[in-house]
Amino acid sequence: MSDSTTPQSVWPRLEPLLDGVRKPARYVGGEDNIVVKDHADTDSRWLLVYPDAYEIGQPNQGIQILYEVLNERSRTVAERAFAPWPDMEDLMREHDIPLFSLENHLPLRSFDVVGFSLAAEVGYTNMLNCLDLGGLALRAEDRTDEDPLVIIGGHAAFNPEPLAPFVDVAVAGDGEEFVQELDDLVARTRRADGALSRRALLTQVAQIDGAYVPRFYEPRYTADGRLAGTFPRRSGVAYRVPKRTVSDLDQWPYPRKQLVPLTETVHERYAVEIFRGCTRGCRFCQAGMITRPVRERSKETVKRMVADGVANTGLNEVGLLSLSSADHSEILGMCGELADTYEGTATSLSLPSTRVDAFNVELADELVRNGRRTGLTFAPEAGTERMRRVINKMVTEADMLRTAETAFANGWRHIKLYFMIGLPTERDEDVIAIAELGLKVLAVGREYGRKNKVTVSVGGFVPKPHTPFQWCAQDRPEQLHRKLGLIKSRVASDRNLNLRYHDPEPGLIEGLLARGDQRVADAIEGAFRRGARFDGWNEHYDHASWLAACRDAHIDIDWFCHRERGEDEVMAWDHIDSGLERDWLWQDLQDAVRERPLDDCRWIPCYDCGVCPGLDLAHQTKHLPLYAGQS
Predict the structure, then answer these.
(1) Statement to judge: residues 400 and 364 lie in one domain
(2) 3-state SS track over 498-536
(3) Same domain, residue pair 195 and 273
(4) Which of 15, 310, 448, 509 has its CA at 20 to 30 Å from residue 259's CA atom?
(5) 248 Cβ contact partners less than 8 Å away, ≥ 6 residues apart
(6) pLDDT tens string 565-615
């Protein structure tokens, strides 16, 4: 644990270097609603890190929420850091400047807890770079009692094993309550002058519900190299670590005072999460599976948050966020009343995540009350109805064309469609149908204006933990390139359809990290040592470095990515309890192969996925309350 003295700011050494980097505003702090405290007046110090560039990480909802939750505690300070761009990293290493916070520009090692929010696997090498720049040993076993705890959260923490050797604690699920419980423990330790050793402190951390402490577990392997399981090394720790779930979002109306950036970021809006969780049951979607059950914020709470947020930030766009925002049981009334409130002002509403079959004329009209018609984004995900039955994305072609007509007829000029290739049971006709559907939507758009646009975006499918497709093989990059060629050939006949696609190679490494076990950690460190940074950015991703790192670590990518798993194969994440029954996930996979869809369980009898009884919770919809097992 860090000592009680106020650490020294790196700002005097940092400021002269800012003229030599792109976008120096990434590193200066000082945003509206920033919280700056004197560390000498606190009992615990947190550094919240998003391991990507400032413009990507600053709007992150998880960082924003935890920043407020922690800083509302009078004796706690939370500050932020982001991955430095390579030009800044070079200068920091040249001038021996450690990774620093934006609020007080304090070194990473002056904090008690360093928490990384990991939304995706592409941030793993940036995370190691942040630790290295901060002067911490990469491996948890090499850290001393004076070093901060390193914790991870976010969706990628639902398989923590590839990062297990580098972290002290992983927590899967919601963080609002967890960080307060951990903060209480850290504060007590610091008030006792850090009397606990690192191991003793982690022993107590392991007693917090949802805390996975890798040093207290060990993976075991069979003679043929398969994982036999991840088992506790000691008594008193959970055999399966449960995810944390906040049951009532109305009790957590954050962020109240969202940070307002001084420079351009990917999202510049006041964001309100209107519900958490999803029960649509898309079989490829990890987010929908691991965030169950559905928990809605009431219309009244959302309206109050919007009023406070607009007043506190001055932002002129309000994003109503969730995995499928139009599914909120009060969405029409909510949007209508908000539109009434802000009609004639500069404030506009947006639903960044909208299902094709939930979009209608009435909702469209409410969203454009102020005359703003930005582009709409929908995700049919697959080109044929057969394929959509496989993935349980129950949207028909008629739904898509009707939605397109509604949008174009109401003045929208641009529709973006997202698809995946490489899905289980996929055939060439399913791939070609992606281009066909895009062209049909474009034809609808042209009926309402020759300048109307359609963009088709295509990405390669990556199987993820805690989903029915966790057992499935991932397509090889060469297979995905061939399928992209089919789409390109069909689209070539009409250049007015804008086609965008992701290179398949980075998806291969994403798949390795998503379903890898602790042995993959050596490859992650090897890639970092070879210079891997910003793996989610095309201009920085270096596939050759990753392949070399995997060879050096004796990692067989084919074995981890390109083979089907059997029903009984142990998964690297089986000791992390997402609430989903493994037998149910397997049965859902069999239904996928048989092309059998599954309805949304909010509106039908419980189909026993395991989440609601396992967590002793139920789906919470404010308009029509349902309870586990209720039909």
Answers:
(1) no
(2) EEEECCHHHHHHHHHHHHCCHHHHHHHHHHHHCCCCCCC
(3) no
(4) 15
(5) 295, 620
(6) 999 999 999 999 999 999 999 999 999 999 999 998 887 888 889 998 866
